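A quick word before the example. In earlier lectures we treated sequence and structure as two separate objects. From today on, think of them as two lines of the same record. Here is Glutamate synthase (NADPH/NADH) large chain written that way.
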Amino acid sequence: MTWLTKYNDDRQRLIDAHAYQPASEKDACGVGLVAAIDGKPRREVVELAIRSLKNVAHRGAVDPDGLSGDGAGIMVEAPQAFFAEQVRVIGQALRPGPIAIGQIFLPRTDLGAQDRARAIVETEVLRAGFFIYGWRQTPIDLRVVGSKADATRPEIEQIMLAAPADLAGSDDGEALERELYLVRRRIERAVIAESVPGFYICSLSARSLIYKGMVRAELLDQLYPDLLDPTFEAAYAIFHQRYSTNTFPEWRLAQPFRMLAHNGEINTLKGNLNWMRSHEIRMTAQAFGDHDEDVKPVVQPGGSDSASLDNVFEVLVRAGRPAPMAKALLIPEAWAKDEGLMKPEHRALYAYCNAVMEPWDGPAAICATDGRWIVCGKDRNGLRPLRAMETHDGLLLAGSEAGLAGLPDSRIKRRLPIGPGRMIVADLRNGILLDEAEAIDALAADHPYTEWLENMVDLEPLIGPGPEPRAATGEALTRRQIAAGFSREDLDMLLDPLIVDGKEAVGSMGDDTPPAVLSTLPRPLAHYFRQNFSQVTNPPIDPLREAGAMSLKTRFKNLGNILAEEEAQTNVFVLDSPILTTGMYERMLGVVGAGTTVTIDCSYPLPAEVDRPGAGLRAAIDRIQLEAETAVREGSGLVVLTDERASEDRITIPMIIATAAVHLRLTDRGLRSFVSIVVRSSEALEPHGVAVLVGVGATAVNPWLAQEMFQERLDRGAYPGLSLRDACLNYKAGLEAGLMKTLARKGISVISAYRGGCEFEVLGLSRALTAEFFPGAPSRISGIGLAGLEQQAMRRHAAAWIDAAPSPAIGGFFRIRAGQEAHAHDARTIHLLQDACNRGDYKRFKQYSEAIRDQPDLAPRDLLDWRERLTPVPVHEVESVSDIRKRFLTPGMSLGALSPEAHGVLNVAMNRIGARSVSGEGGEDPDRYATRPDGDNMNSAVKQIASGRFGVTAEYLNQCREIEIKIAQGAKPGEGGQLPGFKVTEFIARMRHSTVGTTLISPPPHHDIYSIEDLAQLIYDLKQINPDARVTVKLVSASGIGAIASGVAKAKADCILIAGHNGGTGASPQSSIKHAGLPWEIGLAETHQVLSLNNLRSHVVVRADGGMRTGRDIVIAAILGAEEFNIGTASLIAMGCLMVRQCHSNTCPVGVCSQDPRLREKFTGTADKVVNLFSFIAEEVREYLAMLGARSLDEIVGRTDLLRQVRRGGVHLDDLDLNPLLVRVEASEKKLWAEKGRAAVPETLDARVLNDAWAFLDRGQTSELTYPISNVMRTIGAAVSSAIVRRWGSTGPTGVLTLRLNGSAGQSFGAFGAKGLKLELTGEANDYVGKGLSGADIVVKPVEWREHQPAIGNTTLYGATSGRLFVAGSAGERFAVRNSGAHAVVEGLGAHGCEYMTGGCVVVLGPVGWNLAAGMSGGELFVLGTPDRVALALNGDLASIAAVTPEAADRLQALVEAHLKATGSPLASRLLSDWSDSVLRFVRVVPTPVARAEKAAEPIEAVPA
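And the structure line, produced from the sequence above:
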């Protein structure tokens, strides 16, 4: 069996078993372009593009065969002279007009299909009036094609065409390109109709030609010798290097596509595709004449997210919009909250864009062209790098990194910044280059958008706060509460915090209840939906500190023709969010739906006992779908779905299904864009329920019953001091904040692109129901269907309406209560485990284990058991307890979440038995790095690096055997860690380099991991700073995790940790604990299967985490693919934890999770108790292994044939199918756990420095070395810093090693630089300069100084704790993000500067971008500018402008002087030459408490103005 045959067979088995979705495959890349601004072809354009592509190769990945890449390509202007020669060579005479060239992939091994494909192409081009010069075999050199790429290689041919006579002489070529576009779409349709496999048109154009394939970027020009021909000239060339999470080489998915190359990921793809289906119905363009239908469907099936974006970009351009406007429509700048900083004309332009269509949201850097316009642009959050420059001789160069082309500085005229959401544009026809401001000015001037904006109606003033009616009180309200399924606990735990604080409830210790599908109690339908989240391939957004880039603005009224450009498109109503109070809803009817509102009753008669289960619900769904369709066809612009008419004899359709059913029916009928859907639901109580309704299609939601309930409680005096208005506003604000967090978790900024996208994972709904109502949402294990849902609703209905005096259930979803929801950790099991560990009694542990088995089914693994008729082996032949224990870890529980005593005990225990403990994200006390006098070791063997980077220093990273990158946490994926301020003591603050008493909430994303290639870079960084440690990447279980894990393995990770949704937490929002992530069994199985499929399983260790308590859990995890195992909550219980779930309140009664000294004294945990736990579990593992006939854990890893499903859930389920977990895929290469080592990474310049700097490293002698560098030299300084801290610790040597460098520094320049190192760069640097800076000095100065020119990239000084940085130029976005102690001077900043800074000092000698100092809780910032301008840029949530006191002025002057000395900056020189005047031009920003304290202090002497 060939590799390809085996791969395809295994892949199809996984797909058929619902174990794998091809749509989960992701990619990222490096991208760039070279263009001659005058539009004249040059050979140098092609050569520089090829050179640049080679210099971005490290942003891609390579297959183990060494040659098969993830994809590389180049789009060039069609070289007319080159192809004129090709036409002459084949004996044809040139005809008038340009030559059009088609680069076509044909099926290589099916010659009959090849012939059919050629016939289709020829038929359509001839029908359109083109003349065929002939076919040309595209020359290729197979020596550079790897075995995998060759197995899937297409036949590559070019067709050369002459234009029809009526198009040959068109001046601008637009008509010809439009005709070629229509011809291509007809060809594609015909190919699909005839089922021709393996056919793809890379390009068909007289302007552009694409060469691409599955080769390494360095080899593309060797694969295609055309590119090496000296006569092959072009005016522009766009290049792309792909990094795919999937290793299957599909040539068609390499980029560029027809118009663009895209580095990033479209987070809103599901919603965008759904809305495009609606837009297509009304989509018409005069430019297409009678051929509108030829371009539909616009988005072609089977493409990637980038290909889909390209499809829509292309149709907008071919319909007549210029490429810059297409970019503005699809990837607009954030504008909704940017009052003051943005020009009114720009705001009007973007408001128009928002009215026309939904943005394609997600991290993006795009390089695009329509043949005339060249566009280089970024996403609204600026999440992907894009550096640009113009040369004196008229070239524009842009790319993912600076220095790609290696041009001398003397040739560079200027470097051009590109801010978030912005673009630079070159008009090749007129030879004009527009910078980021000029480009938007030009677009905004095309139409009177400011006047058009007056047509938009802001609903807030019209329907905002006002009277709030009541619909039910007393007993009637109680009955409705019970029917909706809400307990008293729900109101106490979820509703009350929203009303009192306007915020979601916070909880701790994770979720130990069963998923809804396994519960014996009826659960709300929303509980079957798990929120999607971003990890690795794209980042979540920070909704706290970057909310300005997000918007909940909601449009009402018809959505028009997206291909038009007219004033009527702005005739819409706009509301600030989709949340409506009951009063707002009623007032809205008179404004939005005046005369056209149709209300649809979503209740139906109570089914009789003789009725077929689910038949009544099905009939009711059919009815509301028909009513909605009829209403819209008859002109209704507002449809209201309501369940308020439920009664004693009427039951409700679950409103999530009702909403989804109506949304999908209207979408399928082409009517959805004509109407808004308002949902009045009794089932929505908290943000998750509202998010699901919007996610399945609701335009707006009125949680009317929740409002009735809090109004009732308000009337009873439950909320003293709150008025009804306050309660309504708080509730609305809390829901909106939770909705923002849900969007942000998936990396989505704008509600319009989220709506209808069904960005959820279904856990426990039947596959049939999911496919019908929630298409695109995975339902991995199937579950309950309509019949079961109706039965559950009837149970609730009976409880609500039969009792004479109804009383809501007490509830036990959050806290354990008798007779309510089951919990894994109950009083009996806690007592048995603690007793066993206290006494060292294995028999007692076995009683505990039996008690666990006697519990109800709480997790998928509880439905599994061993295969029958296995042959056991004697226990004494099984590997030892000591060997098994080495595979165990205590997971990342931070110093801060845990008390120092509990944290230390875990470390001591795990070190005693040769296992490992993970530090968590709170740093580590350096006193622990040395062995204690009693011989115990309190140092964590695994150091965690999380998004907050608290306590992460060069020394910290060198005091471990392993480094864990926490991408996500099971209890709150898509969010950062959270430590309440009252737990931040002086000791904790010192460990975290933060401020005492300040709440610490880590950013949801790692700001240096916005894509898979960024993760590869961080892994590279960590392997430089610690040349011995393995690197682990922690992910959270979700469908699609297998593809992500493949990308992580290719990024050189050594271990992949799959965490289940039920992992513990010190503090998390309750909706995150309960409604995000999947059980680890699902994610672990997929990870093992897909890694095996892609021949990557032998490259990495797989670890599992989440609620493991017994040897049985360990063995099942091993069978599903795990080799190592985290045991967290059980280890806390062994130390004394009672699971009172008060970790977030600092009131742990046993001192495990408290920083209160009084409570810490109550801690009785010992290392012996923890050792007993792990010894007991290991011993039980041995017993199970013996029973299974295995002598080691290695023998059962991935052996799913040892398991069988023995229960399929309750009788009310359609099915509960765990077969997707049990599909077995055999890896072609296998390694034992002990054989898997540390994946090596390429050396950097430091390898040479370590050899050259022997005098410094041997005895600390001050030394100086000089080297030329280029962008491929990454992470310079890290390996040297490792040597420094290993020799001298954090104090550093007495001498200094200075590296004088010239050129363009690669990513992570100076990362983790230690004290004693100084880096002086003359040139420019890329992203992540000074990441984790730990005492080093870094200087970046240009060859030729130009005021405010870009000198370094994004995310500088991320997590820096000490050291200095001087930059004689400006920086990109997120400068000094999470700076905890470094001092820096820079001459300009992009957006989000000094975000979440907790220490240090930053001086900015130039302009600053918006959202300055967001979340800044420590440190000091000086900005050269006016107070008004700084105030506009400032995010004032935590930071304020303060007086420049004399002491502050002295600190400022000292830093500016140091900057002048280090860089020779002319700007610094000018300022210091008249310092008494210059100091008055600085604005000082500090945390608000500091500003208040200084203002209150007497006397305060400010520098006189």
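Notice the following. The first strand starts at residue 27 and ends at 36. We will return to this example when we discuss secondary structure assignment.
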